[in-house]
Specification:
850 residues; Four Helix Bundle (Hemerythrin (Met), subunit A); Rossmann fold; 25 helices; globular; binds zinc ion; zinc ion binding; protein transport; SEC24 homolog A, COPII coat complex component; Sec24-like_trunk_dom
Length: 850
Amino acid sequence: MLCCFGHLLCTVHTCKTVVSTFTEAKLISTKLIYSNLIDRQQLNHYMDSTRASQQEGPRFDSSTSRWGWDLSVWSLYVLPVSAWVLSLYSPPGGPGPAQLSPSLAAMSLQSSTPEALRVVNLLQERNLLPPTPIPAPMPCLPQDLQKVNCNPEVFRCTLTSIPQTQSLLNKAKMPLGLLLHPFKDLSQLPVVTSSTIVRCRSCRTYINPFVSFLDQRRWKCNLCYRVNDVPEEFMYNPVSRAYGEPHKRPEVQNATIEFIAPSEYMLRPPQPAVYLFVLDVSHNAVETGYLNVFCQSLLDNINALPGDSRTKVGFITFDSTIHFYNLQEGLSQPQMLIVSDIEGETCLIFLSISLVQDLLKNLPNLFQKTMETQSALGSALQAAFKLLSPTGGRMSVFQTQLPNLGVGALQSREDPNQRASAKDIQHLSPATDFYKKLALDCSGQQVAVDLFLLSAQYCDLASLGCISRYSAGSVYYYPSYHHQHNPAQVERFQKDLKRYLTRKIGFEAVMRIRCTKGLSIHTFHGNFFVRSTDLLSLPNVNPDAGFAVQMSIEENLDDMQVVSFQAALLYTSSKGERRIRVHTLCLPVVNSLSDIFAGADVQAITGLLACMAVDRSVTASLSDARDAMTNAAIDSLASYRQSVLTIQQPGLLAPACLRLFPLYILALLKQKAFRTGTSTRLDDRVFAMCQLKYQPLAYAMLMIHPALYRVDDLTDEGALNINERTIPQPRVLQLSVEKLNREGAFLMDTGMIMYLWVGRNCNPNFLTQVLGVPSYTAYLLPDLDTAESQRTRAFIGWLRDQRPFSPTLHIIKDESQLKSSFMQNMIEDRTEAALSYYEFLLHLQQQISK
Ligand SMILES: [Zn+2]
């Protein structure tokens, strides 16, 4: 049955037989090697030939700054053709997605899209950007599979056609990996309540749209090919209320689905939602004025914090000492307890939600006159960890300076004079392992730490950030935060807090990514701790977190026409339900380089390379990472020229699907994370690196290559009509000063920040009808009753609605200070330190023709 939100709430009532003998929870302690052994044994049933072969796995060859390939020997088995037994059984009721064979028979492997492979001479074609934002490429699959495939906003692959062998992948010189946004807010999410969750007995894959039914009683796993029984309970379809339709169950009709888990998925009773706020109240912190904003935001949103009657909220404040607050029911007002012996036994006071409002109203005044300048952050974190350990939960830390007292104290490592001149940037890795170790302790107790850094000074984010990175937390950063001097940061902090406090949250989560036998996952990107080879420990999971993984092909995928990937996220909801969200992606396997190139997803490739380059900057050097990114463009275009192009022609040639690759690589080289020659504060750089690793692809792409629009002449021509609102659709412009002019107004969308740059001679009509005044220093568009104002606000509102956070809008005059931030994004132009786009293309061409 469908509830009013379109959620599918089905309860299967009859059979209570538990088919699953292993649970996700038990698997936590199961070594991967063991499950591999099971896979191999099962596969022996299907194998009539074996052979040993050499396979290659990716590694980075630092001597040449290329992502190279490592030789290692694997004995492997090759599946015979007969093992790929597809649907022999045609269930009554017409074709369903689970019937693979007729579809695959019709699937042409030569069906590469001609447009994707159209040859583009980059030196000649200047207007490469499509007029509107670029959608993800669709894998070349039969329509019935495509129809049920996972949404690319949730799950996508760098190559939408998977190479049959690692050597073919090596030849293509493109990275193979997955990009995930697993806990994304979804408007439509089927939710299933069932006492039996049907999974493969061998590899534990959840039944999904890409399995095949051999007959009504048996289904074949699409990851390990084990034939499994269909449990009796699964024979009943709660949607149609019919018996004998296992292929029509919601689990087999939806690539994204959520299960409410039975008790066997619980290691312990589901934890309550527990929120602990750890607040810097030193002199420096009070000066910034952040405490007022924080307390007011929490007061405004306290009833919207996700949770139920078991929810607990607590506070710790700290400077050189640590202060706890007794909020137990029955007290007439909160009691503050000061623990000056920071190494001593901490006072564990547990916390009920009453009295919180009283405390929040008084907290900003309590420390108004403090002269305490020291910061014992490390000890405060340890105390907070002790407080949260018995239950797990979320720790939100607000810090405004470099911690300088007790454990975890840090020293400034930044030399501002070196910012622009140094070729290689030092101090990108942590100065101490204190924060990482504490994060791992937190992870073990199901505690995630989110860090809000509000500071005018260097705070060593490279060290502090570890507390969030390994505990699956988030990092927020507000450089030069001040309640009076920086109203834009205050506005952003307020908006971020609202989203942060009210967004969905999952506790004590783990995520496992499985893929079809033969493929292997080897490097993960994002904030988490890798508990076993393929299991990510996520004490908290939030809907704004992205992940990426790299993959290699360990065994030839010779007889496979499709492969599948499945991400399963097991978590406790804020209401104490154990839930499993499962996403399954299906992609075709191809055996020619041209098909691989035709399926390249240039944005996913760029996103994955950015993650790899962040790692490379830390483990080797920034220049090494920069060289590697440039080489990635050179190598893939050289491979295309040598192996795919049949007619050689002059120029720098790329297939249409990769035409933006050099532009994106250049954009990465000029991005705050990787740029050189421009003064970049170390914390700004490290924060950009954190974001590239942590943001879902859609937002990371706006950070890398912002979208530029002219907005002073918006019209209704070609506009969208959504909910009876007309949304103008101006063209996306190249990021070059030549696209600007002083008579216009231009909107630049960088994801977190939007700039509205108003030219000096901008049309007076725009100034009065949209900005409302001749002078415009604000960062809010007035709500005017003019057609121009409505169009502009509709367009900006539409852009904002496509992301869960609210970007700050800066309206900048022709010659304001912020103009330099705007101009720094003009990626195609030459700067003193960096090549223009055209020069970069010439450099690539020179390297390719060597
Ligand atoms: Zn399986």
